[in-house]
Sequence to fold (38 residues):
Amino acid sequence: MQVNLKIKRFDPSDSGGKTWWQEYEVDVHPDSTVLDAL
Fold:
């Protein structure tokens, strides 16, 4: 099963403190948890 994860990212070394969203498409088993997918 394919799932899409949208992760909010942050770079602590960036003095501007900007955040951004990054999307991943991953293959997981139907009984997987969110932690398994990450």
About this structure: Strands lie at 2-10, 19-27. The helical segments are 34-37. The first strand starts at residue 2 and ends at 10.
